[in-house]
Amino acid sequence: MRRHLEVLGLTYTGEHIEEHLAWARGEHPAPSVLLERILGEEAGHKLARRVERRIDMSGLAERKSLEAFDWAFQPGLDKALVLELARLDFVRHTEDLVVTGKSGTGKSHILQAMALRACQQQMSVRYAKCVDLLDDLYAGLGDGSYLQRLRRWAAPQLLVIDDVGLGQVKKRDDEPTAAHTLFSLVDKRHGRATTAITSNIRLGAWGRYLGDATLATAILDRLAMRAIRIDIDGPSYRQKLARDRAKERGGKLPDDEEPRAPEPAT
Fold it and tell me: Are the beta carbons of 92 and 123 closer than 8 angstroms?
């Protein structure tokens, strides 16, 4: 029997067949009930492994959940809208999502939680910080794999580009601007797959950050055509945690809210 199960690829069942048989001897189930139990556990195990592979391949370093989000700390955030988006119909409809706000307001948490749910729903997902994504594409310019890398970033049903405006965009004089590189990716995905972005700077400041105001406008134009916008105008949760830790240690931090990431100088 184990050999048959191995040939059929039912390895999980093979490892637990004695448990199933012992249960059957004690419960005397109908054949269909026993078969449902065996196949149900095998299918559940295979599904869980597929989800784990999708999460591993997505680039998600943390497994955030909306259940763990502190909604009370951001009362101005439309919770109903976020939970509606978490059903991921916007991904199925190839709509885009742009979330803006100061650093620490929960933008990344929300998009990482949605990316995790997408993996759990058997969608293809990739997640990256903006600077890391651009660095990967720039590396492709150096080793001749640019088009291959661009296709990989363009392929998933959901691409999350996190923290536009944070970190220094690297480039040499002989390389295209970050705006050109990001435009190529957004344009390739436009209308075909969902791109979700968080930004720590005003959208109007993208041109200075990415190095080309015209192409930055073109990126935003494409996103605006199919994008859902959320702006989180609230305090920094990270700064709250820092204040709480300081109080525990007897120290004190100012109550000033954390400012948006500094915008690049002209």
Answer: no
